[in-house]
TrEMBL record:
Any Gene Ontology biological process: regulation of cell shape
Species name: Bacillus mycoides
Function text: Cell wall formation.
Comp. bias intervals (Basic and acidic residues): 1-13, 657-668, 679-736
Name this protein carries in UniProt: Penicillin-binding protein 1A
Highest taxon of the lineage: Bacteria
Length: 763
């Protein structure tokens, strides 16, 4: 047992000896800790990676799809004048797309050098380029290197919002890689250059070239390209049209030139030469860039297109709209209303008019308000939307033309201008409160008599007159009555002008229009041109024209006459009701609306003047009723170049100064001596004989006149000859007397002359 005990004791001693040794095994514990730490880090890394991947997939899960439809840019529509010259680009974003083949190498190089010099080397994201951009920025050369690739910018511009979050950045990187897999570099560059915002509502490089320089891309110079390439970073800060930006724009332009040189696109000499050019050279002014020219006309154009093509979006569908606009006529139209050509009584006095081609119906210019009432885009346009009583300008349309068309009246047809009442019992009055008794239709129209006009419309039939007027483009918001015959119906200058043009176009009505055609981006086009429609006989049109000539030569419209032109036209005025006169305290002679509508073989124009509101001081005085005529006269004098005259058609026969329809029974009336007969062949032969006789008489008179002139010339020559002979005789007698005096040593000798043998001797 002792043995065993000792053995146990020994074993214990051995164990005790071993225990201190076991406490000193620290290296084994350190190894275990680091192992655990590394394992923990690895696990954390794996977890982080998994979490990162999971987060990445979560972030890109709702990333927008690269739909091709989203790569289609909204395109502004271009509006051209009658000669095909660009007038304005309409749209929220002015944009013109170009293909890669249309992009000059100079333009491509400028943007690559500035925005993404490794564009053709990376696959959508350039980590190396981004790192370099950060380092360059840290050195203080801010903005000389871009942080995002062109591909990333395409993604931002087409698919993502402008918010700055890590999620959006992850989506940007992801989509940039996908875009590079689906499209070529050239396609991506094309997307970029067609989308970028270059300031002043210029989206895309082609639009910017036009807006800033009025040039095509191929015509841009190096300094111009460099200026444009510097804009994407901050368009508002580097816009050289603003004086306060010129210095910044110059520095930015020069940075682009430096980058182009650094990347080998231009030489140092080219860089230095381009840097010397003022950054605002050839730049359009800010006013030119921002202002919509011819606002009222542009408004009418857009409204017409939207009416004819309801499902079109002019601001984004990239249409080419070819209009009827004559810029020179429109400029003068604006001056007529807002310059000092016409002496307007005050700033509240308004005017509106439509100036159009008599034959085609194409509107060349419009006037729409003065001062604060000038037309605004998409606002009230008085030239096309005015609703004011047309007054006596309706008489040729509603009364006398239907009488000629349906009743076959001659211009000398007699109408009794005597006291008359409406069917309601209300008295009808002429403007001068007098009555002329039986007068011709010509005189009734020339002097704008109200009673004959109403009697004429009643004889035609109000419904027939309405039907006739509607064929001339006149609309009726309320059913016509007897008073419509003297112009109570409301109309716009464009409506009235269209109707009058039909008289000047041989009885053919062409609807007034502002647009010739619209061309869609795919090249298809839609015509807006209007075909002339026969709405009355040419005899009716000419007989009205001839009577309206009398209005401007001897009637109420003499202030509108232009001596060198064949002008036909009609005045129109409206008055206030008794209630309005009392309400506003204005004189009984006050006029509410004053019109003049007239035409030549070339142009037709309808003018309205008045006030937009009724008030104590807002009425037309008698001295200002002729302003409408003066506007017409100024416009025609300035723009009309065709001095030809309206030609009488074969369907009309002239009898002295009056006209009648050929083939119709001569108009019998109390005060005409024209014989009444139905023997038409005999009448025609008599008419022919009369015309031949008149021609012979004219020839005789011309011959006698020539003989008389020749006789006068001979007499003058004879008198001149006698005068010369008399003078010569006197001169001979004087010379003879002088010789006698010299020979006798008497009299005063002839004065000496220098250069002759005689004269003052040298001292």
């Amino acid at each position: 047992m002792s043995e065993n005990y000792r053995s146990r004791e020994e074993r214990r001693q051995v164990q005790k000896k071993k225990q201190p040794a076991s406490k000193k095994t620290k290296p084994k514990g350190k190894t275990s800790f680091f192992r655990k730490f590394l394992i923990s880090c690895l696990l954390l890394g794996i977890v982080g990676l998994v979490a990162g991947v999971a987060t990445f997939f979560v972030m890109i899960k709702d990333a927008p799809k690269l739909e091709k439809a989203k790569l289609v840019n909204p395109l502004s529509s271009k509006i051209y004048d009658k000669d095909g010259n660009l007038v304005y680009e309409y749209g929220k974003e002015k944009r013109t797309n170009v293909t890669y083949d249309q992009i000059p190498k100079l333009v491509e190089n400028a943007f690559l050098a500035t925005e993404d010099s490794r564009f053709y080397e990376h696959s959508g994201v350039d980590f190396k380029g981004t790192a370099r951009a950060v380092l360059v920025s840290l050195k203080g050369d801010y903005g000389s290197q871009g942080g995002s690739t062109i591909t990333q910018q395409v993604i931002k511009n087409y698919f993502l919002s402008m918010e700055k979050t890590s999620k959006r950045k992850v989506q940007e990187i992801y989509l940039a890689y996908k875009l590079e897999q689906q499209y070529s570099k050239h396609e991506i560059l094309e997307m970029y250059l067609n989308k970028i915002n270059l300031g002043n509502r210029s989206y895309g490089i082609a639009t910017a070239a036009q807006n800033y320089y009025g040039k095509e891309l191929k015509d841009l110079t190096l300094p111009e390209v460099a200026m444009l390439a510097g804009l994407p970073k901050a368009p508002n800060n580097y816009d050289p049209t603003k004086k306060e930006n010129v210095q910044r724009a110059t520095e930015r332009r020069n940075t682009v030139l430096n980058l182009m040189n650094r990347h080998g696109y231009i030489t140092k000499a080219e860089m230095e030469e381009a840097s010397k050019v003022p950054v605002d050279k050839n730049i359009k002014s800010a006013a030119e860039l921002q202002a919509m020219p011819h606002t009222a006309f542009m408004d009418a154009v857009v409204k017409e297109v939207e009416k004819e093509i309801p499902d079109v979006n002019i601001g984004s569908d990239g249409l080419e709209i070819y209009t009827t606009l004559d810029p020179k006529a429109q400029d003068f139209a604006d001056q007529l209303l807002n310059a000092n050509i016409i002496n307007y009584p005050n700033d509240k006095f308004q005017g509106a008019f439509t100036f159009m081609d008599t034959k085609t119906g194409e509107v060349r210019a419009i006037g729409s308000g003065r001062g604060e009432n000038k037309a605004v885009f998409k606002g009230h346009n008085m030239a096309i939307e005015l609703d004011r009583a047309a007054g006596s300008t309706m008489k040729p349309i509603f009364d006398y033309a239907p009488a000629i068309e349906y009743l076959k009246w001659a211009t000398y047809h007699q109408i009794d201008d005597s006291p008359f009442k409406y069917s309601t019992g209300q008295e009808v009055r002429n403007a001068d409160r007098s009555h002329l008794g039986p007068i011709s239709m010509r005189e009734a129209l020339t002097k704008s008599r109200n009673i004959p006009a109403i009697k004429t419309a009643k004889e035609v039939g109000i419904s027939k007159s309405k039907e006739f007027s509607e064929k001339l483009g006149i609309t009726f918001n309320v059913a016509p009555t007897e008073s419509t015959a003297i112009g109570t119906n409301e109309a716009s200058p464009t409506e009235i002008a269209g109707a009058y043009a039909a008289f000047g176009n041989d009885g053919k009505y062409t609807k007034p229009h502002f647009v010739k055609k619209v061309v869609y981006p795919d090249g298809k086009s839609q015509s807006f041109g209007q075909k002339p429609k026969p709405v009355m006989a040419d005899s009716t049109a000419y007989m009205i024209t001839d009577m309206l000539r009398s209005v401007v030569t001897s009637g109420t419209g003499t202030s509108a006459n232009v001596a060198s032109l064949d002008v036909a036209g009609k005045t129109g005025t409206t008055n206030y009701s008794s209630k309005q006169l009392a309400q506003y305290g204005i004189p009984e002679s006050a006029t509410r609306d004053s019109w003049f509508a007239g035409y030549t073989p070339q142009y037709t124009m309808a003018v309205w003047t008045g006030y937009t509101k009724d008030g104590k001081d807002e009425y037309i005085s008698s001295k200002n009723t002729k302003i409408a005529q003066l506007i017409f006269k100024e416009m025609m004098s300035k723009m009309a170049t065709d001095k030809s005259r309206f030609k009488m058609p074969g369907s009309v026969i002239q009898e002295g100064s009056e006209l009648r329809i050929k083939g119709e029974k001569r108009d019998s009336s109390p005060n005409t001596s024209v014989p009444d007969t139905t023997e038409q062949p005999k009448q025609d032969q008599q008419q022919k004989n009369e015309e031949e006789k008149n021609q012979e008489e004219l020839k005789k008179q011309e011959e006698l006149k020539k003989q008389e002139e020749q006789k006068k010339q001979d007499e003058l020559k004879k008198q001149e000859e006698l005068k010369k002979q008399e003078e010569q005789k006197k001169q001979d007698e004087q010379n003879k007397q002088n010789e006698q005096n010299n020979g006798n040593g008497q009299g005063t000798p002839n004065p000496p002359t220098n250069g002759g043998d005689q004269g003052t001797p040298n001292p």
